[in-house]
Amino acid sequence: MIRRTLSGAELVEKAEACLGEVFKGFEDVALRNQNKVLDAFQASCVGLRHFSPSSGYGYDDMGRDTLGEVFAKGLGTEDALVRPQLMSGTHALAVTLFGLLSPGKELLVATGKPYDTLLETIGVRGDSPGSLKSWGVSYKQIELAETGGIDVEALKRAVSSRTGVVHLQRSRGYAWRGALSVDELEGAIRIVREANSSAFVLIDNCYGEFTEPGEPVGADVLVGSLIKNPGGGIAPTGGYIAGRREALERLAERLSAPGVGREIGSYAGSYQPFYQGFFMAPHVVCQSLKTAALFAKVFEELGMRTHPKSDARRSDIIQAIRFGEPEQLVRFCRSVQSASPIDSFVVPEAWEMPGYEHKVIMAAGAFVQGASIEFSADAPMREPYTAYLQGALTYEHGKLAAIRAAEELLQP
Ligand SMILES: *Cc1c(COP(=O)(O)O)cnc(C)c1O
Questions:
Q1: Ligand 1 in contact with 207 (CB < 6 A)?
Q2: Which H or E run contains 276?
């Protein structure tokens, strides 16, 4: 299957030469998003004073509050909570689910099996005493249609007066499916609104930010992680919840405590990396998209199946590559690790990660621990042995890593 006539470097050059149009598309998206983010900074009159740390309760912390404003404007929502106290994407999603749902209500996930780490939060897996299930929230899941899109008819049928939240996951996560486009998500939101105007619509926007010229409009909340796209590789931790003011008021009370809501929350470090990361994010996402398309093209040439294809439109930064057998998958992940700036000397092994169902092998040589806007790969050790590659702070790094990965897999 694998052709050995070219070296890794030649193969990558050849692949890159085919991708001019594709890259131009990503750059156009980045330009439009950069413009929006720049406007957001200027409209909020961001100054050096916003970077100052705060302490204690954090009353009147203007660095924190203005950061929320900038995110809201940049993402096109009414309001946003952006906090280092949102510890990860999963935590931001759990705060949102518990904040918008109540016992007796139903959570409806309309995009197939949700991201692995949410299964225990919902109570689909395990018997955590803190799950939504244990709290009396029921769960319904609609599989994606054969075409890979949302099953619109099933969604219409499934929304009822009990539906408290309709959850839509934009990214493919660890699944062999496409990311849902902003258009498609907006179509689904309209359907939910018609069927039950009081249900909240939540979009798990992880990995999707800035991959298209705008974020989905009309949802109650968009939720994501700052060690992915919107942190631009610079934010050291945190998450965001952006959306309608009414929903965010409820969620602020869930995040801190009823009565104090968004008024508290201090940060003894500087807010500067959060602002700078958001400013960098459209560009860094573009670097990641180019890296993803390059890997897709190279591995297509090597005879692997890829999802999305190298020339596809994208709505997340993830590139799935199917190896079909464990040995090549492990070699691939090790080559990703060894091409990283940090911990390049470490040899990844598959392990039981908290929140995941199968053993996972992870290549993560990142400046920020676990940051997947940085060049990284994850692969659950299960058939058909698919690696999910994401991130790259610079395309040049992505390209060098592609050369090394190709060299590795060209070896017998
Ligand atoms: C990463 C991710 C999450 C969880 O975020 P963590 O920061 O890893 O907790 C949830 N949903 C999707 C689609 C993700 O990609």
A1: yes
A2: helix 272-301
- Interatomic CA distance for residues 177 and 155, integer angstroms: 18
Backbone angles phi, psi at 94, to 5 degrees: -65, -40
| Tokens 């004073």 belong to residue | 49
Asked if 394 contacts 287 with a C-beta cutoff of 8 angstroms, the reply is: yes
Q: Which of 122, 225, 240 to mutate to test the pocket of ligand 1 (most atoms within 8 A of CB)?
A: 225
pLDDT at 1: 47
- Ligand 1 pocket test: pick from 115, 118, 223 the residue with the most ligand atoms within 8 Å of its Cβ: 115
Pull the structure tokens for residue 320.
């799935």
pLDDT tens-digit series, residues 224-234: 999 999 999 99
Q: What is the pLDDT of residue 225?
A: 98
Does the C-beta of 169 come closer than 6 Å to ligand 1? Answer: yes
Question: C-alpha distances in angstroms, 277 versus 68, 169, 170, 287, 342?
Answer: 13, 23, 22, 14, 19
Q: Is 208 in the pocket of ligand 1 (CB under 6 A)?
A: no
Radius of gyration, alpha carbons of the chain: 21
Q: How far is the CA of 115 from the centre of ligand 1 (A)?
A: 7
Q: Is 225 in the pocket of ligand 1 (CB under 6 A)?
A: yes
Phi, psi of 187 (to 5 degrees): -60, -45
Q: Return the SS3 of 165.
A: strand
Would the pLDDT of 94 be above 80?
yes
Mean pLDDT along residues 39-50: 98
Query: Coil, strand or helix: which one is 81?
Result: strand
Q: CA-CA distances (angstroms) from residue 108 to 117, 120, 161, 250, 400?
A: 17, 15, 12, 20, 43
Q: CA separation (Å) from 91 to 83, 290, 349?
A: 11, 29, 26
Residue nearest to atom 6 of ligand 1 (CA): 89
Tokens encoding 128: 């955590």
pTM comes to: 0.96
Q: CA 402, CA 252: separation in Å to the nearest integer?
A: 43
Sheet hosting strand 138-141, strand order edge to edge: 79-83, 239-243, 221-225, 200-204, 163-169, 106-109, 138-141
